[in-house]
# Entry
Amino acid sequence: MAANTGPKQGSFKAISRRRGQFALAAAIVASALIFLADALSPIDGAVAVLYTGVVLTLAPLGRRFVIGSGCITAVLTTIAFLIGHADDPLGGALLRYIVSLVAIAITVLLSLRDRSARTTLAEQARILELSHDTVVVRDRSDIIRYWNEGAERLYGWTRGEALGRRCSDLLESIVSAEEISASLEQNGTWSGEIIRTRRDGTRLILASRWLERRDPDGRPVGIIETSADLTESRRALAERRSSEQRYSTIFNSAGFAALECDLSKAMRLILDSRGPSQDCEAWLLSNPQILRAAANEIEIYNANSAALAMFEADTVADLTDGNALLGQLPDSEPALAHIFASLVAGSSLAEIETRCATLHGRIIDAVLRVSVLPDGQDWSRVLLMAFDVTERNEARAKIEQTSVELAHAGRVALLGQLAGSIVHEVNQPLAAIINYGKSGKRWLTRPDPDLTEVADCLEKIVSNGNRAAEVVGRVRALAKKTAPQVSSVDMGALVQDAVSLLAREARAAAATIRVEEANIRGPIICDRVQVQQVIVNLLMNALHATRGIADRPHEIRVRIDGTAENFIKVAVEDSGTGIEGNPERIFEPFFTTKSDGMGLGLSICRTIIEGQGGRVSASNNDGWGATVGFTLPLNIPAEARWSKPNILI
# Structure
């Protein structure tokens, strides 16, 4: 519509300008002719009365033209009177002169009044055109007599197409004719909803107001109606109701606890009490009385059946507030503080795991997830979902215990494989202790005892005793059955201990084990015993892979790489036969390439490493052999430690 308005208005202005110029020229010519007739002709009459026609001709041009034409024609009338009747101004000529002036004055006044009325009507008509609602005027036969731009936009019919058509036929109206007729007859007005059809066939729902038009005698002559389109609002309302119905169905049939809460009062209490620069979570934890007061302001106004069952409540009224929901456990305070702090920070979602007490006092583990609903920006509508993870946590604890026992069994089995090496490593220092003891005894039984030699023998005895103790200590550490315990560990020293433990196996396999370190930044946080078990297992597998190789040296390299910013990498590279098929399969339970193996060693290794936040990997080398290794974070986050134990079998 806007694109066509400019040219159309310009065309109208050009036509109006030409019409005005023509009217002005006609008025000037008419004025001249009337003046000549009045001043020079012998006609005995009020010729000057014809000047009223000049005033009426110029009236459409505006107020200034009306007043100007009135003044000019009055002057011309006066001049003509003086020219024709200067010698005898009294008599009938004077009366005709006065009648002419009065006629001109009345014409000017009526023209000005008509101009004002037309201007008012034009403004009212313009207001009707500017209205977004439809304005339709119909006569008693339902013929359309007026059709505004709002009607054009809504119905799709132009004014030229609509005028003169029957409204009910054009718009296929569905109305309650009896109700409308009764209301118009009784009150002269009617308002309600009607259904009409657009030009393209679309059905419209309209809120319509009808006013009965009457003539001066009070007889009805037609209808003025205004209508507003309700179609989109009704569709939006229907969609919202449908959405709310779906939400209600999902809410009530969900298999997890869901509660609708009002947190506005609780949040207002926290915001009014907290200082502007304070960390909200730390401040709440340091002010537990405010935290509990805020929890007491939580209003729970709806809960599904799963929530009632989870918290052992009979009705929603039993879950009166946040304190009743979370109980009086100190464990729940950090969870409350975290949720409130997240909402204060502007988040619409907060999630945390905590411990709760049911209304009957039973302690449960629950994951709480708080979501601010779209129409609850002031925290007045918040959805709280609670997931009972008590059984999951108990099962996880059992799995962790099983994993610890299985890892211990793996270490004991590993020690069984190393029994010969252990005996050899212990026998060597014991034999040395016996020899040095005998030698010292001989030095003492001499006629002139050599105490220096005796002291040297004793020193060697102590050294070999410490060596034997170290071997026993490594064996005891590997065989110890304890829960995972993290500590600061020097990875280089841990690898060297593992290499020392396997020194005899390496000599028996004619293999050389080299340790290479790069960019080690310092100790890492891990479980020393379990990580050493992994390293020993990888080295044992590497030694086994080099058996039967005769065309190349038996070399094993242990690379410790701390280049990465957040983790350290340990890789054991051998020169053996490599891994057939997919190398990653070696970490699957019961997968083995050994005729006497059970296939649990590397599976246990994967469980240990992933339980400490790391990853295991395996690949074949470009030349020969394979590389099996793992990565560990430099510092294991508390929530990641053994949080996702793998079931080994």
